[in-house]
Amino acid sequence: MVRRVLALTSGRIAVTILALIALLALLGPWLAPQNPLATSDNALAATSGAHWLGTDYLGRDVLSRLLDGSRISVLGSLEVALVALVVGAIPGILSVYLGRAFEWFTLRIADTLVALPFLLFAIAVIALLGNGITQAMLVTGVLVSPLFYRVSRAATLAVARSPYVEAAIVSGASIGWIVRRHVWTKVLPPIAVALAQTIGVGFVIVSSLTFLGIGVQPPEPTWGGLLASDLGYLSHRPWAPVAPALLIMVTVWACNLLADAIRDVSGEAGRALANDHKARANRREAAAGPHPAGGSR
Amino acid sequence: MPARPTNLRPGLRVRPARRAGRLRATALGTALAALLVPSLGACGSDASSATGNSTLKWASSYFPAHWDPVVSGSGAQFRQLALVYASLTRTDEQGKAVPDLAESWEYNDRGDRITFKLRPGQKFSDGEPIDATAVKAAIERAQKQKNSALFGDLTSIGKVEADGLEATLNLTQVDYQIPQLLGQRVLQIASPKAAKNPEKLDQNPVGAGPFVVQQLIPGTKAVLKKNSDYWDAENIHIDNVELVSAPDTSTVVSGLRTGVYNFADIDPSQADAAKKAGLDVFVQPGFNAANLSLNINKAPFDNDKVVDAVRHAVNREEFVRKLTFGYGEATDQPFPKGYVAYDPKSENAYPYDPAKAKKLLAEAGHKPGDLKLGLVIPSEDPQAEIVQSQLAAVGIKVTIKIDKNWSTPFFAKDLTFSLYGTTGRDSAAQTLTAHFGPNGPLNLSTPYEPAGFEEAVAKVRQTPLDSPDYAATLQAATRAGLQSKALVFTYASPNLFAKTKALSALPKNPGHIDWTGVKLSGAN
């Protein structure tokens, strides 16, 4: 699937952007040209050779703070997505096989979680458990998990009634074996699409919470926090919000682009697309005529 | 952007730094309402123009959470409550007590009894008469009501006698500060009939001020109209007031520019934008002062050398430069420079000297970086980040902790290290006791009090305000108070406002917003 995603232009763009963002998260603190927490007398300075993106209201280098703040955004969004995956996908698959009681119970929980507004719930949890992005993202992940529950359940239901699965059951195969051997490969593509989308949603949630000053303690930099503080000084640095806003926007866009690319290359649609690519390639070859012997193209 | 603590004890409010006092969530939430409501109301304002009425549209960062003055206390929100409530006295442009509901007052020879004579024929907006019985009820309610934020300010007042229009206060000590004290900050008088139900009064205020509340949407908007029965109604030229909770500070200037508001308190960071937009930006005089609060009953501040190290580590000019945009000034006292209580002899007693701070820490046995402090504040505040970086420069590692329930441990004196700011009081003696007194709400180190302070403040109370010795006596009390190890003052933030040119200049009453004589012309 990876090769098929990379075969698409949109897939390559998305993967490149996300790889760069991941690199920022890993190496941001080391790439930062200055100490992101060090204040100076040079407050609200414009862009310059010393400060490529200027300085903030306390004279801190904005580029360094953006680079340093990328880790919280990336890790937070990954945390949301992975928690949602684990909490949602596994019960979603098992709900098809573990009997009606388990199915009814998990469906009701999923319905309940869908009804809760995750941003408000995250704020409430932080108020209860203390100001920290980890607990906020854990809760948000749980609230987003019904997406994975429904996607994995739907995919599993489609596979569960197929003749080869029934044959496996008749042959005495265990549920675990069936899930590993037959179900997982069918469920994986829609889950991958949902995962990419959820990472994007996670970025939006982390940015929203940190914009509101929730989840992190000052002076720790975050993309959302930088955006919020810049808005207070628009008359001094009107272009300041552009950098953090652009970073958030591009990252979320890349996640959605990746989700689209995965969707395009997976399942029946993916095979059709691949066949279409091959057919077009064949047509091009046919139109080009016979290759000259010993020549090069 | 303002950081405005919202959960403070009502008696003394933190002066806004930036992005303080309130959650940005609140700001974002109210932004829409604040922008939409007045916009929709624009149709109404057109109508009012047609009838010749003038409407003050005031966006305030201090929209009162409580409209019962006893609960709201004497913090910055008293200015909004002053639209509704009058008091025995008010202050003039020199900050001196002048008649309001009381037309005169007189002390006995010993200075332990004062009689206020009320203006005849006045009534509250619910028709109740304003007499000495109403004054007595107001004082006793402020002293006794369970959730009163004012009882600590009224300890000098004993038994109150009511006789027609004469209210006589028997004092527990000689105290010539009483006329200063019983002004808008401490004794806004509510109708005794309405005050019988304090919960109802809290959201349905009934007073005898220049305006009467017509509609109140808690936390969001208040609509008021001129009180024709107000004793000085002829000098009130504004017919209606729409008071709204200011949205995010960055949007206030836009609101002023587009006519959504015509008056607003603004953050210093917005002053330039307001000026560029052609608005009148002005600083109302006041008594604001911000400080670091240290609890010397707890380590490491139980060591004098650590306290002194913090005093020398503070660079006040950085606060002024980065937080006030040139509109504030450094202060090492609980008042701005130039105020009668400001003691020039105490000025710069602990100058910024990071080398000395490091030396003191070393003498206290602390290696660079091994002293760790938690700075607990109610909401995000750039002040805290400045404190953090300044203390880091001398080897003290500060972790900022935001506690939404900050006011409870702060006023219970459970915190070790915090920040506060006051908008001051009309009575300098009250400001001093609030900060340095053994039970002062701003003294994080209760019951500690600096040696000689109590005697010095008693002397202030015993000195008539028109005595030639008053200023020197007051400054001596300030000097005694500043021996306190519990407070390190940093800067005085400005009372900064912006208005459209349609609104005439406000009287320069220090710390107050007085609408007497203010006119609003037709165009905004």
What does it look like?
The complex is a heterodimer of chains A (about 300) and B (about 525). Chain A has about 300 residues and is mainly α. Chain A has one domain: MetI-like fold. Chain A is built from eleven helices and no strands. The two termini of chain A are about 30 Å apart. Chain B has about 525 residues and is α+β, with helices and mostly antiparallel strands. In chain B, strands 10-11-12-1-13-22-14 form a seven-stranded mixed β-sheet. Chain B has a four-stranded antiparallel β-sheet with strand order 5-6-8-7, with helices on one face. In chain B, strand 3 and strand 4 form a beta hairpin. Chain B is globular and about 70 Å long. The N terminus of chain B is likely disordered. The interface between A and B is medium-sized, with 26 and 33 residues.
Kindly list the characteristics that best describe this protein.
heterodimer, A: 297 residues, mainly alpha, MetI-like fold, 11 helices, 74% helix, disordered C terminus, B: 524 residues, alpha+beta, seven-stranded mixed beta sheet, four-stranded antiparallel beta sheet, 22 strands, disordered N terminus
Structure in a nutshell:
The complex is a heterodimer of chains A (297) and B (524). Chain A is mainly alpha-helical and 297 residues long.
Please give the alpha-carbon distance between the first and last residues of chain B. Answer: 25 Å
Runs of chain A in which pLDDT lies below 50 for 5 or more consecutive residues are 292-297
Query: What's the total helix number of chain B?
Result: 18
Structural class of chain A: mainly alpha
CATH architecture of chain A: Orthogonal Bundle
The average pLDDT value of chain A, as a whole number, equals: 87
Mean pLDDT value of chain B? 89
The fraction of residues assigned to DSSP E strands of chain A is: under 5%
The largest beta-sheet of chain B arranges its strands as: 10-11-12-1-13-22-14
End-to-end gap of chain A = 29 Å
Estimate percent helicity of chain A: over 70%
Approximately what portion of the residues of chain B adopt beta-strand conformation? 15-25%
Count the domains of chain A.
1
**Class from secondary-structure proportions of chain B:** alpha+beta
Oligomeric composition of the shown chains: heterodimer
Tell me, what is the CATH class of chain A?
Mainly Alpha
Low-confidence stretches of chain B: 1-23, 25-51
Biggest interface found: A-B, 26 and 33 residues
